[in-house]
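We were asked to recover a plausible sequence for a given structure. The inputs and outputs are reproduced exactly as logged, with field labels preserved.

PROBLEM: sequence recovery
POSITIONS: 634
GIVEN STRUCTURE:
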């Protein structure tokens, strides 16, 4: 792995490169790339040539420049992405369906661009992907759920119209390459393993958790199957896949971007839609298209959009003099609160980087505020979603296969899905006016303390590590976010910024967060940091063989003491070429550092869940392959 640094701050470049070399472990095919050096979205247009760059690696701004200067066409771009998808999709499974009209749409875009009397739109000819929880006219919305996935024998929910967000993208000239995979009903923040379309893999390494629930969108963008993608978050589902696959992302303020036409998980309270991109600048360009009020979604009525747009605050000096709060126990205690030692080390490096940018840091500003107590207080974290699902189904239009939860439930019972209780659970309250008072009271408690702390310490933003530890394996592992679900309940925005890697090569990321409607400021801080330090990991050497299906091996080591068929202690050598990830001994699970050949030494009653009498050990590799060993202990 190599690190490309911007040209500024030359005096510290050698020291920064040395530190980066120590922190970024070499790994075949992975490369850390810096953000664009330019501070202006239009500056790339000053250089018309592609300089031989593969068009599938271009950012949005670079793609628009290439199209403007006739260095490529939208048709050529779509063909290049489709060729890459044909090669690698069988081994990464980013998509649930491809758009058969993508080439025709690209040709129409090229014709529009050639017409001097037609206005060139903001995303004219740019190929993107859409998470398959969103309605795209004429394409089934599957949500990864077997019941609504034709590939699994489920019903095809084909909407008559685009979701408002999709319409905005279409009207901006974007080309939809396809819809992307997700876990059933967006129900996991770590992977898409239970999707009706099968698991999706992390582009950086298929053994690593890819993040969820916008798994396929992240894989498509990180794998250069598209220029950018649309994600959705209820509790980490934009942040986590961006973090797991080293992408920039915006988790917006609730109500900034319409979520109508998205199959709801918390549609009235928490569901937000946002971009996954290859640069901060791209995220800002996307937000300029996506954000703002629409009569189709009353939740956007209070949306605050900056007059000069989201690219207006992209600056190399955005952090200069800003007061930035740091992560600490005042924010969170208990489960998933402590930073792993290496996360703490990488975060400390990031804090020093902040200071070099001229920021003033404030240690643990939430200490003594009571904020951390809210997480365990048991407040209402969602409400009214069955009514939101009912409204979603009605919006599909009269030609859709069903238009209500009742009709969907009847179809399920008549077509072999009667055992799927998810649809039964959607019936209660589906036709009632939702009561959001409990959720809103809980949200307001979070906001009251949050805003008080920000005001007391005169903070401009917070900067946290996005994960409290590195991502786990694709099967059995997780992405442990530092702000989920605090900012989801509080409906606050955040911007994910890649910042290098752990010693294992797994990506490390930051999250800038602030008050509601501050996305433009957050993008400015993210831009300043990314411009100075880079940190996005890229893997162009993707796999073209199936993922490992070989089970681990377990060998009893010499020296294990056995008497009368039972051991007084047992030592075990584990092995798997794809890395052993975890063991489960009599229902006690233990995560292991990913290793080809770890050992469990001197296992006796009381160790790792072992007990007197019969014991069952299950060993899992990173791909979920399993080996079992039965043994007895005295």
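RECOVERED SEQUENCE:
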């Amino acid at each position: 792995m190599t690190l490309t640094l911007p040209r500024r701050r030359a005096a510290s470049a050698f020291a920064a490169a040395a530190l980066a070399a120590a922190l970024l472990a070499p790994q075949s095919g992975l490369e850390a790339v810096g953000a664009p050096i330019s501070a202006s979205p239009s500056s790339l247009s000053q250089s018309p040539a592609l300089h031989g760059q593969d068009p599938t690696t271009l950012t949005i701004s670079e793609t628009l420049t290439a199209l403007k200067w006739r260095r490529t066409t939208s048709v050529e771009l779509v063909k290049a992405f489709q060729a890459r998808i044909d090669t690698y999709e069988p081994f990464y499974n980013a998509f649930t369906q491809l758009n058969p009209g993508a080439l025709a749409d690209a040709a129409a875009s090229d014709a529009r661009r050639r017409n001097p009397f037609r206005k060139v739109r903001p995303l004219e000819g740019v190929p993107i992907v859409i998470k398959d929880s969103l309605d795209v006219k004429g394409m089934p919305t599957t949500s990864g759920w077997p019941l609504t996935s034709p590939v699994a024998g489920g019903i095809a929910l084909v909407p008559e119209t685009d979701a408002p967000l999709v319409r905005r993208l279409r009207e901006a000239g974007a080309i939809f390459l396809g819809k992307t995979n997700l876990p059933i009903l967006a129900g996991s923040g770590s992977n898409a393993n239970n999707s009706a379309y099968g698991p999706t893999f992390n582009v950086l390494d298929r053994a690593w958790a890819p993040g969820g629930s916008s798994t396929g969108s992240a894989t498509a963008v990180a794998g250069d199957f598209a220029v950018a993608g649309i994600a959705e978050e209820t509790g980490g589902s934009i942040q986590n896949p961006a973090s797991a696959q080293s992408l920039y992302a915006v988790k917006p303020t609730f109500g900034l971007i319409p979520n109508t036409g998205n199959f709801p998980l918390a549609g009235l309270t928490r569901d937000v839609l946002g971009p996954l991109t290859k640069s901060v600048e791209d995220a800002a360009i996307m937000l300029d298209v996506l954000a703002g009020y629409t009569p189709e979604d009353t939740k956007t009525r209070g949306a605050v959009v900056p007059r000069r747009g989201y690219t207006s605050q992209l600056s190399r000096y955005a952090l200069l003099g800003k007061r930035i709060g740091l992560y600490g126990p005042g924010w969170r205690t208990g489960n998933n609160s402590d930073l792993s030692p290496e996360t703490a080390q990488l975060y400390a490096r990031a804090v020093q980087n902040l200071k070099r940018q001229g920021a003033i840091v404030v240690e643990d500003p939430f200490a003594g505020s009571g904020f951390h107590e809210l997480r365990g207080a048991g407040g209402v974290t969602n409400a009214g979603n069955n009514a939101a699902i009912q409204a979603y189904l009605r919006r599909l239009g009269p030609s859709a296969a069903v238009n209500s939860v009742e009709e969907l439930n009847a179809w399920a019972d008549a077509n072999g899905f009667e055992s799927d209780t998810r649809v039964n659970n959607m019936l209660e309250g589906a036709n009632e006016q939702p009561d959001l008072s409990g959720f809103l009271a809980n949200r307001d408690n979070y906001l009251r303390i949050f805003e008080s702390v920000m005001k007391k310490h005169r903070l401009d933003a917070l900067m946290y590590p996005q994960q409290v530890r590195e991502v786990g394996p694709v099967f059995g592992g997780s992405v442990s976010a530092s702000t989920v679900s605090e900012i989801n309940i509080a409906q606050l925005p955040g911007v994910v910024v890649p910042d290098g890697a752990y010693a294992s090569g797994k990506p490390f990321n930051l999250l800038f967060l602030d008050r509601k409607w501050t996305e433009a400021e957050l993008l400015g801080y993210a831009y300043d940091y990314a411009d100075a330090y880079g940190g996005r990991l890229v893997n162009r050497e993707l796999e073209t063989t199936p993922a490992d299906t070989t089970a681990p091996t377990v060998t009893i080591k010499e020296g294990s003491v056995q008497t009368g068929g039972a051991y007084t202690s047992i030592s075990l050598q584990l092995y798997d070429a794809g890395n052993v990830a975890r063991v489960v001994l009599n229902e006690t699970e233990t995560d292991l550092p990913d290793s080809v050949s770890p050992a469990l030494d001197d296992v006796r009653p009381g160790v790792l869940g072992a007990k007197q009498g019969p014991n069952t050990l299950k060993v899992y590799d990173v791909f979920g392959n399993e080996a079992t060993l039965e043994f007895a202990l005295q």
